[in-house]
Design a protein that fits this description.
Elements lengths: L1 H72 L1
Length: 74
């Protein structure tokens, strides 16, 4: 009986190994894609922050100029 069951069990285990390998490969690809997307989003956020800091500096310069102009009038 065991001699008959052994090949069937082995084939079943081999099929499960193939399924597991495919699932692991799919998980790896999904994780890699997610990591690339996250890196892309980080780059976008960094660019946005850089632009915001530049704009803030421009606004501060305008305010400083206005304060100097007001101060020179008095």
């Amino acid at each position: 009986m065991a001699a008959i069951q052994a090949p069937v069990i082995m084939m079943s285990q081999n099929r499960q190994q193939v399924k597991d390998r495919l699932q692991a490969d799919n998980d790896y690809r999904v994780n890699l894609k997610a990591e690339l997307e996250i890196r892309h989003l980080h780059a976008k956020l960094d660019l946005l922050l850089t632009h915001q800091w530049q704009r803030l500096l421009e606004i501060q310069q305008v305010q400083t100029d206005l304060l100097e102009e007001i101060g020179s009038r008095q």
